[in-house]
Each structure stands twice: as structure tokens, then as C-alpha cells.
Amino acid sequence: MNAIVSIRNLSKTYATGFEALKRVDLDIQRGEIFALLGPNGAGKTTLINIVCGIVNGSGGHVAIDGRDIIRDYRVVRAMIGLVPQELATDMFETVWNTVSFSRGLFGKPANPAHIEKVLRDLSLWDKRDNKIMTLSGGMKRRVLIAKALSHEPTILFLDEPTAGVDVELRKDMWEVVRSLRAAGVTIILTTHYIEEAEEMADRVGVIAKGELILVEDKTELMAKLGKKKLVLELQSRLSEIPTGLTTHNLELTEAGSKLVYTYDTKAERTGITVLLNELRAAGIVFKDLTTTQSSLEDIFVDLVRNSK
Question: For 98, phi and psi rounded to 5 degrees?
């Protein structure tokens, strides 16, 4: 595989003794969208900040396209675009000037055509002469992305990119991310919005308490860890699950009108046939049945809970 970001045995311990990262190993492939999920304080932002050269690690090694991030700092940093969580930018400057200035910080020559394209792609062209302070939160977030793209990076880190952005703008930004990936940019994003990872990511990593507990292809992850639910709509309500059926993973819902059976898709046998036979023997009749697949959110919650 062609890894553009290679992280080996990366640790970070602060002066207080707090271990923010514990021996993290991770390869991110060229041209993929990688989503890093984890609760607050899990180490997501620390990991990004070390790779981007903002924070020093306590141990381990990070390489970008084969180049050491410390020894080849200038070259590596020019390859990276970072969209931070905080809306930190010059509020009294215009959109055009602040994005153009960001390009100059990386020693790139002026390129008005590129800046125009970035602003148009992010629906900021009509706001190019507006001061940052006059923009909505969603538009300010777009300006941060424009600044990160101003120097034409090959890797883009998005740290909670749609925090505080309404649903419509969030979906627009998903399209922008997809178009960047189509243009060959590698995208690494952290997010609290599970649907964001489910919608966009090629692979998903889950981090908890500074440890990377899982990295998996999104589709394979959901196939391996996803559970299905068989929902039976009952002919008559039940006040409780009959004693003879308590060995099954059953739950009564909606005031006893539905019986929900959860089963593991990885298991050799689902147990559905046995369950239906036992329901029939117990005289329980159902009008309809449906199945639902666990979402990535269900899987994420289970993984983090099990890591505690």
C-alpha cells in the first residue's frame, strides 16, 4: 500500500504526567478519506497537531511521503493544509486578503486564479471583499478551509470541520471534501458527527484515552461489527417476555406491541429459525417483521464503552 502519512509508536506525555497519546501506529493511504473518531479528550487533536508540527511528540516517529516531520519540517509543512477547530483568523481582514496572505506564508508566488477557484468552490466568491467579522459561523468555517487550501497542499487535515455548521452547509462541505479527494488530495478528518464519517470516509480509526483501538475499512467495519435487529410487530401486546424465550436476546418495545431480536451478523447461525419456531410454540403471533442494520454510531459507542 502507498502510505502518505506513516506514524510509528507515537506518544505524547504532558508536563502534568497526562498521557495524551500512547504508542500510536497508523498508516494513511494516498488519496483516501480517513476519519478519526473518538470522544472529547481521546487524543484526536493532539495527534493532528503533532503531525502538523504544532506540538512535539514525546516519542515515536512520523513521516510524510517518506520525509521526517522534524528533519524536513519546511518541506513537509508545505505539503499539509490544516483546518483547526477554532475560528481563529483576522476578523478585520477581507476574505480575499486573508486567503491570499495564507498562500504567501508558505512562500508560494501569488496566484489569483487559484485563490478565485478555491473561493468559488467553497461558495465564498461573493463574499471575497467582506471582512471576516461580518460572516456567519458557517462562512467563517469555509474561510478556514480556503486558507488551508491556499498553498495547494496534498494532505488536508480537518479537525471537526463542520462544528457549528448547519445541516445544509455541512452537506455542501461534504461535496467539497469529495471533490478535493477526486483531485488527489488525501483527507484526514476528526469528527463528532458519526454520519459524517459514515457518509464520506473510506476508512475509520477509533481512538480512546490516547490509544488507537481500531482501524478498519468502513464497509468491512460495519460488516464485521454491525449487528442486525429483527423487529416483530405482534398481533397482541405482551406484558413481558415469556420465560421460555428469555435465553434469546429479546426486548419488548412500544408498550409490548413489538419484539426486537438482536443478533450478530458474524455468527455462524443467527438463531432466527429457532426463535420463530419457539414463538410459534408459545402461541405468539406477529403481523409483520423487518430487519435493521446497526449504524456506525452504534458500533462506535460499543467500541468506546468496551475500552473503558
Answer: -70, -35
